[in-house]
Amino acid sequence: MSSLKKTILHAAHRAMGARMTPFGDWDMPLHYGSQIDEHHAVRRHVGMFDVCHMTVVDLRGERVRDFLSYLLANDVAKLQVPGKALYSCMLKPDGGVIDDLIAYFMGENGFRLVVNAGTMEKDIAWLQAKAPDYAVEVSPRFDLGMIAVQGPQARDTAMPLMSDDLRHQVAELKPFHAATDGDWFVGRTGYTGEDGLEIIMPENQTESVWRQLAELGVQPCGLAARDTLRLEAGMNLYGHDMDERVTPLASGLGWTVAMKDDRPFIGREALQRQRDAGGIPRFIGLVLAGKGVLRDHQILFDGEREIGEITSGGFSPTLQRSIAMARVAADAGEHLTVDIRGKRWPVIQVKPPFARNGEGCID
Amino acid sequence: MSNMPNELKYTKNHEWVRDEGDGVVTVGITDHAQELLGDLVFVELPEVGASLSAGDECAVVESVKAASDVYAPLGGEVTEVNEALEEGPEQINENPYAEGWIFKLKIADASEMETLLDAEHYAECCANDD
User: Fold this and answer.
1) Could you tell me the pTM of the whole model?
2) Can you list the domains of chain A with their CATH numbers?
3) With contacts defined as CB-CB under 8 Å, which chain B residues touch A228?
């Protein structure tokens, strides 16, 4: 345990009664008592998450836009207004997903990436390996902390903690845009399917902000609630729903791949070949018809034929039923079953999201 | 610190056993176990009449994040199951030693009771797990 990394909020989590769990290299809060209460707090009011383990990477250089255009499967040409954000996968030449990330346009010659904790080292190595060709400077910002404040009351609750300038900007902020003031950077983004903010700030201010948010009634939430919220919202989790062995096209992320024009990017040829060949596995949402819980790696059947597996499964506190995302063969039929501990149970195919903005999205 | 009542017996797999007299015991999972599992959402109960040997997998408790087997602490026949858990699995979180009981067992061999742990030894097991 002692070798695990601790975020700047570690002591605050312990003081708030968190049960901690190893998450990659990090010792992170799993929950603070009840993950279901935390989940509902975000859907109904406001909750907050320590996301300091994620890494901010700043990119600078005259050709930084060309650099990202080549490295990302989504097209940064969509980012013309400073602060605008783009969700994208970064691919290997064979189309496998190195990571999924958010890229922000920072204005003149600058972009900011926010990358996953577990993939941070390989992401930075990949970026640094490609950067010299474009004379781009790659700067991981380990001096910054990050708190996600999520839920219908997130913005109203968090804005009083900001400078006057930032507060006025955030009041006008559109979804998937960010505002900045000095080292503070606030995106109207998140991983829960609710309105909310991701607040990046100097690491030495992060604990004070966390405590002030708690005093304002914001529910601290752990990784367990983060997982049920993102699953209900139909958002992929790297390492579960996709990784280096699959392409975005087989992971429900075709919408994030920009191939309409002839922009070259790493992985494009592999994706084109996969499209031309056809038979791409389908990525689907599932609801368990009966009782029980769908889990990662449970096997799915069409009749007696094994046709795929669950990539993310769990219990939906909003729907009070078990839900999952799964990768199945292109020709899998409509009526599927899942193997749970040796018994087969029917599952219903649905289109995610399962729940967003406080409400269930399926019958 | 988890609650571990002195009048109960325990297994290292985190079941508790209450001797109800007449060779019948009540079985559940401990406060420590429910804390580790987190919010429970589903319980698969054993069948009434099932004949179990000590150590058999006989029930499943599922929390939001994980499924965990419940093992028969003693050999015997299942005489009753807590059907209220089908609609209210959270009772195991809220009151693991009362409303959260899982099943009752008519034990085959009373001497097996001596294989169980008392509260003090169970507490040592939990401390070693952490």
Assistant:
1) 0.93
2) 1-280 (3.30.1360.120), 281-363 (2.40.30.110)
3) 64
